[in-house]
Task: inverse folding
């Protein structure tokens, strides 16, 4: 885990309630620069809600969230500015259906960051080439496969040059044969040092990509550990019972290719 001085993102004792139901009950975690933290746990444990709180899509009822040395949950925070620093990729892609791929990618850089169109378009094309979709720049979302749409959604988040990337079950809506093409993009980003907080149900992927695994259950952090330690010898009984429901092979971590990000 990151220490308090090196944390890019820090959550201190987060409480989130929906009415009388407590969804997050004092959750604390930290993500250091270039670190990948995977949040796993059973359905309904609060994983996706946690990410939505980080990005200001859900208000919290207790605790604080820090981006570097700025408390983004302080009164008066301009969440539009925070979201330019914290990118998020959703399970459901959320591309604008009336815009083609290039216009989806340029919307935030032009409207929010006030970037020049030529510069932003050149960077977008560089990313599209990186993810194997340069020939789809003029296509509309309805013309893309699920895996293609999710790769475009990742690129859209990267176009704002985020300090932290949040990934929320990005393969959950994909056919099995499309999962790999999306995970390969994320693995490459990890190899390049992108700071990421990932919610995933893909246990082998979590082990392969993460530096730290956070196991969440019933809205609370039950265990935090390096991936190999967690998946081979979890300390908490609840974590052991959770892992017993999966049948997967623990892959050895392999060196990941390092490439330069466009722009």
Result:
């Amino acid at each position: 885990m990151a220490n308090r001085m090196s944390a890019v993102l820090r959550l201190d004792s987060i409480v989130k309630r929906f009415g009388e139901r407590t969804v997050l009950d004092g959750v604390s975690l930290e993500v250091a620069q270039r670190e990948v933290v995977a949040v796993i746990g059973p359905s309904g444990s609060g994983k996706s809600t946690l990410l939505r709180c980080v990005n200001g899509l859900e208000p919290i009822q207790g605790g604080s969230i820090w981006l570097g040395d700025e408390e983004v949950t302080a009164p008066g925070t301009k969440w539009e500015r925070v979201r330019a620093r914290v990118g998020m990729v959703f399970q459901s892609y959320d591309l604008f259906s009336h815009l083609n791929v290039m216009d989806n990618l340029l919307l935030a850089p032009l409207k929010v960051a006030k970037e020049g169109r030529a510069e932003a378009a050149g960077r977008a094309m560089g990313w599209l080439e990186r993810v194997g979709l340069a020939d789809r720049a003029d296509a509309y979302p309805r013309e893309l496969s699920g895996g293609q749409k999710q790769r475009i959604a990742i690129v859209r988040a990267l176009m704002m040059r985020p300090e932290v990337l949040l990934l929320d079950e990005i393969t959950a809506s994909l056919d099995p044969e499309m999962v790999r093409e999306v995970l390969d993009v994320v693995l490459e980003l990890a190899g390049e040092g992108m700071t990421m907080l990932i919610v995933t149900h893909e246990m082998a992927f979590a082990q392969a990509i993460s530096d730290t695994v956070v196991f969440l259950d019933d809205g609370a952090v039950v265990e935090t550990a390096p991936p190999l330690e967690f998946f081979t010898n979890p300390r908490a009984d609840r974590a052991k019972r959770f892992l017993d429901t999966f049948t997967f092979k623990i892959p050895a971590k392999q060196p990941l290719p390092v490439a330069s990000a466009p722009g």
